[in-house]
Specification:
This protein has 5 helices and 12 strands. By secondary structure, it is an alpha+beta fold. Strands 7-6-10-8-9 form a 5-stranded mixed beta sheet, with helices on one face. The chain has a 3-stranded antiparallel beta sheet with strand order 2-1-5, with helices on one face. A two-stranded antiparallel sheet has the order 3-4. The termini are far apart.
């Protein structure tokens, strides 16, 4: 009968709805089990990698092996690439040996200009950083491939993490230590980048620096009505509001510290 046919069609539609819901729930479960940030270094863009040219920050520290281009204009005419020697010196024509090792790029440029102008009247001098030396840096702890790497000077710690294949399943994205000598000079929290787009890294790498990827923090899984379902790391002092905010949902809950034993 017509009624029986309509009941069969309705039953088929209900079965289809149940199937779609199961598929969606399975997808949501997969998303929520995914560690937040785990795909970042799989899609790391080449624009994050260092470029061996003068496009470096004013705070870049000059070291042996760097190449400066110096040009005189005026009472003298001169243009040449000068390599910083092991002792930190370069030879400026008609000025002599000048030591620039350990200077920030902007300070070195100003210093060289002053030295040349004091020695030669009627002179304009232009200085630029042509190329940088390679540096050896170490990454330890919970990186995919910890070890010693050679990178261009001025590289970001991100470039070293990428070179090491990213962070392994037991490593943290939020407590990466940057060590120089016997001091921790910065602690890197990559959630600043993942969530807010802020590259909150104060210091670039220098020769001999070490990155230590610590074990991951406590974790919580956010699923349901959040924009980014995933498993998130959190510090013990972070509030429930802050943790929920990781998933892209602005919570109206009263702030409450989440304690995990």
């Amino acid at each position: 009968s017509k009624l029986e046919t309509e009941l069969k069609e309705a039953s088929k539609r209900l079965d289809k709805i149940r199937y779609d819901l199961e598929v969606q729930n399975d997808q949501n479960d997969d998303d929520s089990r995914q560690r937040f940030g785990s795909r970042f270094f799989n899609t790391f863009q080449s624009t994050f990698l260092p470029v061996n040219n003068s496009n470096l920050g004013a705070n870049y520290i000059i070291d042996a092996g760097d190449v400066l281009t110096v040009q005189y204009i005026g009472s003298r005419s001169f243009s040449k690439e000068l390599t910083v020697q092991r002792d930190g010196n370069i030879y400026l024509p008609e000025v002599g040996m000048v030591n620039v090792r350990g200077m920030a790029l902007t300070d070195a440029v100003t210093f060289l200009e002053e030295q040349a102008k004091n020695a030669i009247t009627g002179l304009r001098i232009f200085v630029s950083l042509t190329s940088v030396k390679d540096i050896n840096v170490l990454i330890m702890g919970n990186a995919e491939n910890p070890g010693l790497y050679t990178l261009p000077g001025g590289s970001s710690p991100l470039a070293l993490i990428y070179a090491a294949g990213g962070i392994d399943d037991k490593g943290t994205y939020r407590n990466i230590l940057h060590k120089r000598g016997d001091q921790i000079i910065q602690t890197i929290d990559l959630y600043d980048l993942f969530i807010n787009g802020f590259l909150n890294i104060e210091y670039d790498l220098r020769a001999g620096d070490v990155l230590i990827v610590k074990p991951k923090l406590s974790e919580v899984t956010l699923a349901g009505e959040v924009a980014n379902q995933a498993t998130y790391e959190f510090f013990q002092h972070e509030s429930l509001d802050a943790i929920i905010g990781f998933g892209g949902l602005v919570s109206q809950f009263t702030s409450k510290t989440l304690q995990v034993s």
